[in-house]
Structure formats: structure tokens, C-alpha cells
Design a protein that fits this description.
CATH class of the largest domain: Alpha Beta
CATH architecture of the largest domain: 3-Layer(aba) Sandwich
Helix content: 10-25%
CATH superfamily of the largest domain: Pyruvate-ferredoxin oxidoreductase, PFOR, domain III
Number of helices: 8
Strand content: 15-25%
Distance between the termini: 53 Å
Number of strands: 11
Radius of gyration: 23 Å
Low-confidence stretches: 6-15
Mean pLDDT: 87
Order of helices and strands: EHEEEEEHHHHEEHEEHEH
Length: about 350
């Protein structure tokens, strides 16, 4: 039997309009994500529900590069009362809510930039160690953790459905039943099979989250991250010079993984090299084995810095030595075998 909506953990006073509407302010949300986790769709669903079904004014748009999957994606939502016109289309710089889809984004200070001192920070992570990066949040901000990826994998859904449920469970004035109906309508035509799984994920996200106390150590609002040009006509370098040339050895693909990673069980490996033939990123590490009379080269492990989690190696492994596992915090760092040990400080 499904849990009723709205659900537990309601931490704001229930009202029918966004906080601040009476003072002429907008309620602003910024989704921080990587391509492939559904941040754009989540923003679209939230704004559509608010405008078409809840009688509010709203605006939504996203920012991402030409190659969406694995790259940084930001989705922006502004909501206001029906008599509060929205005449701005700039990115959300001082959000009331920041929703983080992938733990690796916490390493980037820009992820939390501009959060209001009384804002809410929702991040995707399983229960366990609290990241040190969260100390940079405002002392008075509300911090909420939800295992969006774990729930999504179990329900065969996506993290966006879970996190939409969490924001509705956190802010009761966002009618959870209305947002869920909009989510279901969004996917009814595209992927009917996803409607039921999304509903279960949404409901779990709306109730299975944790409010973490006494995390931030910063007083007041966080500073805004503006995209002002670094160089002007007086400070720009000489033309045709690359001051920071690209180098694939420093490329970090870890943000491309969306919850699953290959893990090597050495005892099962026959070092046939089939995995190396199908790996698009050359992240498998080979070396001299213990028994050189049997194998000339042996698979030592995976350098997860360069692994984007495509799992082609798992699909091709004839012995099951490479298997997929859910990526939990710290697992990749613990199992990583570096391709370039000299780069590790």
C-alpha cells in the first residue's frame, strides 16, 4: 500500500504559496547535476506542476554543454505568486534550495555558491560519513541527505524522481500529489513502464530522507559565483598562447559514473585482455604478474579516475572477474590502481 502524500519530515510551515511571495521575492531552486541523472527533467516537472496545476508563476531553464552525459548540468527554477510576474531569465545565483545529484560535485565550491543563510541544501548520498565539504555551508542552513541513487536503483527509476519527492517532503506548500501527477504525465507517453517505478521512487524520496544538524560553519549567505571574464583588454595574455594546455593524463572521468562501477576479482581473472579491447577510456591497469611463466602481463585493476562506468568490460568478461557494483562513497578511491603513480602526491 502506498504511503499517503504529503509525507513525513515536513520542516517548513505549510502555506499555499512559495516563501517570500508576500514580500515580492521569488522562491529559487538550483539543481546541481551531471548529464544523465535527469536534472533538466526534474526542473521541468517542478515548474510545470507549479504553473499549470498550482496557480503560480514560474520559470525554468537549464545550462549544459554540447556533450551532456557526464558533464556539469545546472537547472534553474523560479516560482512566485500568480500576481508576481517573472521578468528575469538569468541563472539562479542566490538559491533558497540547492539540490545536488552526484556526490563528486561537492568537491567543487561552485556547487554551493550563493546559498542563502536560511536556505536548504539537499544532497544525494547514502547514510554514513558526512563529507568535509559541507562545513563550507552556512551555519543556519538546513542540510538534508537522501540516498537518491540507492533508492532509484532499487526501484528501477532515476535519482530525479527521488529528489523531486524529497523537495516536496521538505516544503509542504509544494503539493506532493500534484508534482507526482505531473511527473507521471511527463513519462506516460515517453515510457509508460517508468510511471509506476517513478511513483515508488518519488514516495520513498519524500519520506526516506535525513535532516543533518550542525554541519555548516559559515556565518551568513555564501558568496555568489559570477561568470565575469577572467581577462580584460589590459590583462589578457599574448594571442595564440595556451596558458593551460589540455592533457588527458589529468582528465577526471569519475563524475560520469551514475552509480555503478566495475570491480575486479583477481582470482577469477584469466588475463585474456578482452576487457581492454572494449574499454573506450583505457582505464585498465596491466603489469607484471606474480607468475610470469603463466601470464606475460596481468590485469592489476582499474584506475577509476578515467573510468566513466560504461561497464563494457563487465559485459565482455568471460569469467565474471569484472562485476558491476553500486558505487558507495570512498569505494573507487580505495580500489583504484593508478595508471600514472608518479602523478599521485
Amino acid at each position: 500500500m502506498n504511503a499517503p502524500l504529503p509525507v513525513n519530515h515536513q520542516v517548513n510551515d505549510a502555506t499555499s504559496l512559495p516563501p517570500g511571495s508576500s514580500a515580492g521575492k521569488f522562491f529559487e531552486v538550483r539543481f546541481e547535476s551531471i548529464g544523465g541523472l535527469g536534472a533538466h527533467a526534474a526542473g521541468h516537472v517542478l515548474a510545470t506542476a507549479a504553473v499549470l496545476r498550482m496557480g503560480m508563476n514560474g520559470a525554468h531553464f537549464s545550462s549544459y554543454g554540447s556533450e551532456k552525459k557526464g558533464s556539469v548540468v545546472r537547472s534553474f527554477v523560479r516560482l512566485g505568486a500568480d500576481n508576481q510576474p517573472i521578468r528575469v531569465s538569468a541563472p539562479v545565483e542566490t538559491p533558497d534550495v540547492i539540490i545536488v545529484f552526484h556526490g563528486v560535485l561537492l568537491r567543487n565550491p561552485a556547487t554551493s555558491r550563493g546559498l542563502r543563510s536560511d536556505g536548504t541544501f539537499i544532497y544525494n548520498a547514502p547514510a554514513g560519513v558526512i563529507p568535509e565539504e559541507l562545513k563550507a555551508l552556512p551555519r543556519s542552513a538546513r542540510v538534508i541527505r537522501v540516498d537518491a541513487l540507492g533508492i532509484a536503483l532499487k526501484e528501477k527509476s532515476r535519482p530525479n524522481a527521488v529528489l523531486l519527492g524529497t523537495i516536496c517532503g521538505t516544503f509542504p506548500w509544494l503539493d506532493a500529489a500534484t508534482v507526482l501527477a505531473t511527473l507521471s504525465e511527463e513519462f506516460a507517453g515517453k515510457n509508460p513502464a517508468a510511471v509506476a517505478t517513478n511513483e515508488q521512487a518519488f514516495r520513498r524520496g519524500a519520506s526516506e530522507f535525513e535532516i543533518i544538524e550542525s554541519i555548516g560553519e559559515v556565518d551568513g549567505d555564501l558568496p555568489i559565483a559570477r561568470s565575469d571574464p577572467e581577462w580584460g583588454y589590459e590583462t589578457q595574455p599574448i594571442g595564440a598562447v595556451l596558458p593551460e594546455p589540455g592533457n588527458s593524463a589529468w582528465n577526471d572521468m569519475s563524475a560520469s559514473r551514475t552509480g555503478l562501477m566495475p570491480v575486479l576479482e583477481g582470482a577469477k581473472c584469466i588475463h585474456c585482455g578482452v576487457c581492454d579491447l572494449v574499454c573506450p577510456d583505457f582505464c585498465l591497469v596491466w603489469g607484471d604478474g606474480a607468475d610470469t611463466s603463466k601470464f606475460e602481463r596481468e590485469l592489476m585493476g582499474v584506475d577509476y579516475r578515467y573510468c566513466k562506468g560504461c561497464l563494457r568490460c563487465v559485459e565482455s568478461c568471460p569469467t565474471g572477474a569484472l562485476a558491476q557494483e553500486i558505487e558507495t562513497p570512498g569505494l573507487a578511491d580505495r580500489l583504484r590502481v593508478p595508471l600514472f603513480p608518479e602523478m599521485i602526491k
